[in-house]
């Protein structure tokens, strides 16, 4: 059953690479999905925390596009005022939120890919691989965003407040609950789905397709004949290409999420009504504010995520990600 090209029996552990050989993990077993879940938590939590300074400037520009003249001016301004610590404003909710989101996203993606392939059957699945990637990633992200949303709300509030939002992470949580109730953490859930689900669909489908194209048209041998270091190089390249597409398709919703978590709703006003008010106020061009910064951020982020995720997987004894079409043998 799909993806047959990732079978462990055909994956070689090269000598001298520094990777440790492990007892084989059965593909699509509970241990396999657990490994994907842990790898996803590491990949997303670490990378999102690492690019917090870039995310900070991007988010503030989305709220006030005249605040800084660019990324470097933003870093310089924040650094002079608050030092290195100031550049990592919102770093704690970022790390916690995206660790939980990454665990659910990567773990459920492989789970749904396996389950949907079982339901659809091998022949249909092999003819419609991209549809499988899109359906699996959308399902996984729908669940992952429920975990992410409260922390994303806290992060945006911390990054966009004119004065420090709260003296600590727990103080920030208590402040939101006191002012808005638990619902304050979830008022951006629908826009978050609007941002993250298309983003993740593009991220996984583009990555899988790019990996396949690289091995098919650029590399000279089948995937299973390359060692782990070489496969990780393909992973990073495909990840960066996927990240560029992700940034573009999800950016307007990202701007909306930032605005929603920065503006208080009027009494009796629904989140949908507030969102429409913001969209009318921003106009079409305003929805693309900060896109350049986000392309750099998301491109780097996505490439590093796939690299960390796959490094963890191959250390655990699994093949790198990306389902490759089997080479057709000629008679």
TrEMBL record:
One of its GO terms (molecular function) is phosphate transmembrane transporter activity. InterPro entries: MCP_dom_sf, MCP_transmembrane, SLC25A3/Pic2/Mir1-like. It is found in: Mitochondrion inner membrane. Its main location: mitochondrion. PROSITE patterns: SOLCAR. GO terms for biological process: mitochondrial phosphate ion transmembrane transport. Solcar repeats lie at residues 31-115, 128-213, 230-315. It is a multi-pass membrane protein. This is Mitochondrial phosphate carrier protein.
């Amino acid at each position: 059953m799909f993806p047959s090209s990732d079978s462990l029996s055909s994956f070689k552990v090269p000598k001298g690479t520094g990777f440790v050989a492990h007892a084989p993990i059965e593909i699509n077993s509970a241990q396999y999905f657990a490994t994907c879940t842990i790898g996803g938590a590491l990949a997303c939590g670490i990378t999102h925390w690492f690019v917090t300074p870039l995310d900070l400037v991007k988010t503030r520009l989305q709220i006030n596009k005249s605040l800084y003249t660019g990324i470097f001016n933003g870093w310089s301004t924040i650094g002079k005022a608050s030092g290195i610590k100031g550049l990592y404003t919102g770093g704690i909710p970022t790390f916690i939120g995206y660790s939980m989101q990454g665990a659910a996203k990567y773990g459920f993606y492989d789970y749904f890919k396996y389950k949907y392939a079982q339901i659809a059957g091998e022949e249909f699945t092999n003819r419609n691989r991209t549809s499988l990637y899109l359906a699996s990633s959308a399902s996984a992200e729908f669940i992952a965003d429920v975990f992410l949303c409260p922390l994303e709300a806290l992060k945006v509030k911390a990054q966009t407040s004119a004065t420090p939002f709260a003296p600590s992470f727990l103080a920030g949580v208590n402040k939101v609950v006191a002012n808005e109730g638990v619902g304050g953490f979830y008022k951006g859930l629908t826009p978050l789905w609007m941002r993250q689900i298309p983003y993740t669909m593009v991220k996984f489908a583009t990555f899988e397709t790019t990996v396949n194209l690289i091995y098919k048209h650029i590399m000279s041998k089948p995937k299973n004949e390359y060692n782990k270091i070489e496969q990780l190089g393909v992973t990073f390249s495909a990840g960066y290409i996927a990240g560029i597409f992700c940034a573009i398709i999800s950016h307007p919703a990202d701007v909306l999420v930032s605005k929603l978590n920065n503006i208080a709703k009027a009494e009796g006003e629904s989140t949908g009504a507030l969102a429409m008010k913001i969209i009318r106020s921003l106009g079409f061009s305003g929805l693309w504010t900060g896109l350049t910064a986000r392309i750099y951020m998301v491109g780097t982020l996505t490439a590093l995520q796939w690299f960390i995720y796959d490094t963890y997987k191959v250390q655990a004894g699994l093949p790198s990600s990306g389902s490759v079409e089997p080479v057709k043998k000629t008679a």
